[in-house]
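Re: nicotinamide-adenine-dinucleotide structure - here you go.
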Amino acid sequence: MSLPICQNYIGGQWMPASSSATTPVFNPSTGEIIATCPVGTCVDAEAAIAAAAAAFPAWRDTPPVDRARVFFRYRHLIEQNFERITALICREHGKTAIEAKGDLHRGLENVEYACGIPTLLMGDTLENIARGVDCETMNQPLGVCVGITPFNFPAMVPLWMFPLGIACGNTFVFKPSEKVPLTAIALVELLIEAGLPKGVMNLVHGGREVVDTLLTHPTVKAISFVGSTPVAKHIHETGTRHGKRVQANGGAKNYIVIMPDADMGKTVENLATAAFGCAGERCMAGSTAITVGAAADKLLPDLITAAKAIKVGPTDRAAQPHMGAVITAAHRDRIASLVDSGESEGAKILADGRTLKVSEAPAGFYFGPTIVDDVRDHMALAREEVFGPVLNVIRMDDLDAAIETTNRSAFGNGAAIFTNSGQAAREFKHRVKAGMIGINVGVPATMAMFPFTGWDDSFFGDLHIQGKEAVQFYTRQKVVSTRWFSEGVGDVWKK
Ligand code: NAD
């Protein structure tokens, strides 16, 4: 049986890509290839940009209430198709059904936020900035915007971008991850069904050639990117050099500090979810636990038990495990090699996921929950983003040392503390160098109404994704000063 080949959606038409080269789309649960994704060329990217540019004038002038109505219908359609889309996420990504629902729910909240666009776009006014002169601000769309997304949240990350970008009055070119194109296609199909005019949303598959065309094309005004740090840097540097606005979220290494006074039962529960949820493939995964003083002895025995109790298996069927596979065999092998390197440099493996066998799906890309103790700052395992179900443990004597270690990371996405001390929590939130802080919250990822505030090597740009910052990103302000002279008809009402 021949495999389905993903199609582009350009100017209101589904169509094949310009070249026949493709990459495989796997079902990570079984290791099977389930579809192929076009590699794409500049011809596809240019056609998508041209379609978006042609649709811009009419969409820009569509009243914001009418634009919002498209997203009210879109919201309804996503709810109606919730099970179907989450099943696709499980199939092409390997998330469990619960995780896939979380992925789509977080995305749906961004659609709901975009439904408020008439209010979000309102400007300010001030009468009499000088005698007889009034002043107002207007927020106007930019033109053609681009969204380039990673594999790990097939629904949420695209929904971070295009609903708000389009609701602001822009037209859009969406380049999804070639590893999870099926969810992207389903999301675009529903947007068409919601009544979006032709050309406002365009979907183009591909890799570097497509991305570089989008980054350098003079018609493109703004680029939203989420992915790994090296690619985020490339996107930001190339896009800004070509005069575009860029917001580029990168990778992460998030620290969770556990104080000896923490509620250990709740901490174990939260830490296991933060480290092993979504098989560790989250930019907000808690990948390093820093235990302070006696916290290690209180925490680790139960944490090891919790890790070993996690059932790993296929997620593409009714009976669900606690954790699914990682995205590809190559990614699984990279995770294993980072754990090997830590071990050879002296770290101790307390729970070992490298040897995991899943008998009902032997060819799936599985890696079990892993805990590595005595990790040192200089190790590659400590510095690099592993992006798998691996929790490093670093032991420290006091909070100061824990904060200093956290702040040495090149990344700055999230950090959390588990404690019952208000003073320790205050010290931590004040001094820690990361954009999203959790206090007794293991994954402090922000929701649609708040910006997703990565710092340092976790974000390149000025205005973040989500919330009011994203509305600013997708619009530019105009300030109008108005004075009316009283000559001629201006005096009529006095008579
Ligand atoms: P990736 O960087 O490999 O790919 C992201 C996107 O960039 C994909 O669409 C891909 O096709 C494209 N791409 C890849 N290499 C490219 C290149 N050389 N030139 C141009 N385009 C290229 O990321 P991934 O593996 O799909 O996703 C995982 C990464 O995303 C992790 O590092 C994770 O931390 C990060 N992430 C960050 C956030 C955040 O908000 N900070 C959220 C989710 C994921």
